[in-house]
Amino acid sequence: MLGKVDVIYIDPPYNTGALHFAYDDKFGPNADASHAEWVAFMRARLTIARDVLAENGVIFIAIDDNEQARLRLLCDELFGEENFVCQFIWHKTRKGKALSRVARQVTEYVLCFAKSKKLLGKEGLFGSEPGADVANPFHHRPNKPRLITFPPNTIRTSMDDGDYQPGIYGDPNDSLSAEVKKTFTIKDGWISTELEVFGRFRWTQRNLDAELLGGDVEFHIRKGKFRIIFYKSNGHKAPSSLLDDRCGVGTYEEASKELEAMLGCQSFIYPKPTSLIKYLIKAVTINRPYALVLDFFAGSGVTGHAVAQLNSEIGGYRSCILITDNSGKINGRFVEDAGDQGICSAITAVRLKKALTGAWASGQVDGLPGSLVHRKIARYSSDLSEFSEDGQDLVLAA
Question: For 13-43, b where at least 16 C-beta lie within 10 A, e where not — what string?
């Protein structure tokens, strides 16, 4: 398993000082010891995570304000500062704590590091399709003015045919005006000659030449203000650093409703929405149909559910390994293995089975593709070699 995992998503204990059903997230008798113990707890696990990641793999770690700063420093050390990708901000709730006198916290974070950022390459992370019908401005006010040369017949325009003289086109007092350096000709809706134009542009000449070589950009000049716009017909847009309903990502409230509909009860505190995990995994595996995903804080099993949904929606055979314990509360006390009342048996496994079969507590829905293998293990090897040849869609280890 070493070096073979494409995506790791984990939602570790946040060190809030409260006791959750899945994990004891109270570390140490005082604040200083608590932080140190939490960092040590995470260091051991993230060291293994780094080793099992593929060279072009990516890890996503959910976290809140309590340990966000320390987690970033720890990941800088283990993965390298140069491999930091993004700190996503997730809009976790629509309301926040109404009684808060300081600030209503409505966001959390998802820290993202690559095993090797260079190997993500030009493809990067996927956020959405390019939207070939959406115009993008070539002018960009914050940039310094630069001279750009467009080859003949690369820009469409609605301007009348004929020869046009050098000069400033647009409002001279507007920083987005453009200065044409030499005469150009328009014929049949195209600028048929070379266009030399000086202004505040989004790209350098090198960027422009590369995009023209790729053949997936269409340029237009709008009549009147002489603004250059372009349409992308290939490639994709990178994901937004703000994860909210505008990119299809839900909140705690929606996650709780979904889990209750599946299980028939409110059995998990603050579950993550399937849409959040799906968005993140898709960002890495859009072109990796056989990707392997790992979650070693499986909790409610949302990562496995998200992988199955993604396979159903865009095709592919992505597989997922989920690891969690089977602790639970019996007669008011937490025990390490609570049998059929434990988190793995009563929540994680049940949720995954219902996701695949569609047999939700609220009624039958369409099942998702895949199969489930559920294993009980006393200890797993640091390289997860026990799972390397399984070949199943979802493997749940407790």
Answer: bbbeeeebbbbebbbeeeeeebbeebbebbe
